[in-house]
Amino acid sequence: MPGKEPVRGTSLTKTVPDPPAKDEPTEVVPQAAVRRPPVRAPHRTPRRREVGDVLCPECGAGNDPGRKFCRSCGASLEAAEVVRRPWWRRFVPRRRHLVLKAGARPGQPGVKSARGLPPMSALAGPVRMVASVAALTVAVLYSVHPPFRAGVWNQVATVQKTVNGLVNPKLSPVHPIRTVSNLALPDHPPEAATEGYSNTFWAFPTDGDRPVLTLEFQHPARLDGMLVYNGSTTEFKDYSRVKEIEVSYGNGKSEVVELADHPERQQIRLHSNGAVSTITLTVRSYYDAPGKLQGALSELEAQTQTSGSRIGW
After folding, report:
1. For the chain, does the N or the C end have fewer beta carbons within 10 angstroms?
2. Which residues of 213-226 are buried (b: 16+ CB within 10 A; e: fewer)?
3. How many beta carbons lie within 10 A of that of residue 259, not counting itself?
């Protein structure tokens, strides 16, 4: 424009002053290291270990299976072990948990507060397991241990002997050294009833005192049975037969036995409850022979059991 001088170009660069020099640190004498206080993990309520929990390898706390780090100390759970059910728990039935209805609380009237017993079905598994283990153990011992095998056979023989004794006990005669009676007819003494022959007999009157027969043994013996032939085997209808006999033992025990009305052999059970030296037989009643006032007893043999068990006999 007229009257003004043209503007000359100016430099676009600007001089930036140097930053002020920083103070260099001064030399310091080395100091003792300060110990930092240990970091304490927050307090957590210990949790009961359950089957399937993951155990922390550092602190041993139980953790849920899905956790990667310990809930107590924060350690990694990569090498952690899993809680497994103890072997002995398999033999203990689980208890049923009490299930309450909605709104019910333990302790309220009409609400059960105790846990129920396990059902019988829960015992079937443990019982089968124990039985299987016991059977396997016995089979192995029987196969590889000769003394055990011999013991088993000894027990089998003992049981077999006991069973045979119960089913068919062996009785042996006990012969008296003296036989006496308060009553006897001529030619039919009391010794005829114990001499071992069934074609002879002891005869006695039936219209007076009760006939009493006493047997005396050389050595005390326990009496478990009595073999009897009732009446006269050769003249059965001509003599009354013995029906009831009171058996009195030398130890003070006594019992009443009943005979059958036939001339065949009869096996009578006795209970002396110990060894005795004498036995007294008192005739209490008869099978009457019509028009006859005399009775007869052909044979009587005291017996003791020499094999088997006396249980049930």
Report:
1. N
2. bbbebeeebbbbbb
3. 21
Predicted confidence at residue 313, as pLDDT, reads 47
Start-to-end C-alpha separation, the chain: 158
Q: The tokens of 274 are what? A: 């110990």
Which residues in the chain land under pLDDT 70? 1-25, 39-47, 90-100, 103-123, 164-168, 307-313
Architecture of domain 171-305: Sandwich (2.60)
Token pair recorded at residue 209 = 């005192």
Residues 6+ apart with CB under 8 A from 224: 169, 171, 269, 270, 271, 272, 303, 304, 305, 310, 313
Please write the tens of the pLDDT for every residue from 81-124. Answer: 888 887 777 666 666 666 667 766 666 666 555 555 556 666 67
CA dist., res. 181 & res. 300, Å (int): 13
Taking the C-alpha atoms of residue 95 and residue 79, their distance in angstroms, rounded to an integer, is: 33
What confidence score (pLDDT) does residue 312 get?
46
Q: Which amino acid is at 145?
A: H
Please state, in angstroms and rounded to a whole number, the distance separating the CA atoms of residues 6 and 10. 12
What pLDDT, on the 0 to 100 scale, is given for residue 268?
94
8 A C-beta contact, residue 245 and residue 226: no
Domain ranges of the chain: 120-167, 171-305
- By the 8 A CB rule, do 211 and 181 touch? yes
Tokens of 90: 């398999």
